[in-house]
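Morning. Coffee machine broken again, so started the prediction first thing and wrote up yesterday's gels while waiting. Chain of 252 residues, entered below exactly as on the submission form.
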Amino acid sequence: MTALFDLTGKVAAVTGANTGLGQAMSVALAKAGASVALIGRSAPDQTVAMIEAFNGKHAVIMTDLSIAKSAEQAINRAEEALGPIDILVNNAGIIRRSDALDFSEDDWDDVMATNLKSPFFMARAAARSMVAGNRPGKIINIGSLLSLQGGIRVASYTASKSGLAGLTRLLANEWAGKSINVNAIVPGYFATNNTEALRQDEDRNRQILERIPAGRWGKPDDLAGAIVFLASSASDYVHGALIPVDGGWLAR
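Came back before lunch.
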């Protein structure tokens, strides 16, 4: 059974790997045996130190993911450093908060570029490599509860994460026959930089905790099992799934 989840010899690329969920997933993949390319705009120094602590293999790829042409360049650089790509985790994301009546065009465009455009072009670049090399592959998008719900004061974030859910299904339909699994994880409310404002708001923090059956905010390490499952051969017949890791929020 252990062999189903073994990623020894696999090469993974994770965007937004410098902190929070991306950091935890990168470390989990490395612990499962994968070599991990850490891709993003911010130096993932802490993530590197965590992986090096158990002699994990890694590479750092610095790039602006909001620019479409960066995707192919990032995958090429990852493959030059570590070998042909087997796993892509589209995790990088940003959020802007404002009432819809006041939401700016810049805040709309910035979020959509990072949260929706980038995952498509990263997935396309990775899949092209997988198909050219006749290799199976795993592409894992990181959605949000707002892939399935509306939220408030985060118009572009909700639109981007809802779009990512649709994109996950579309790519699964197109690429399942090519032995490329495309799935998504739907994290609930996790204690990360993106949710700092919510956790500092006493009323919102209380309302959120009252809704979560598990009674707590998620910890980044809570994603370790889901990410290794979707990256491994254990999920070979899983296509187009959105897997919630939310403490029971959606079951409420």
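The domain at 2-245 is CATH 3.40.50.720 (Rossmann fold). Going to sketch it on the whiteboard this afternoon.
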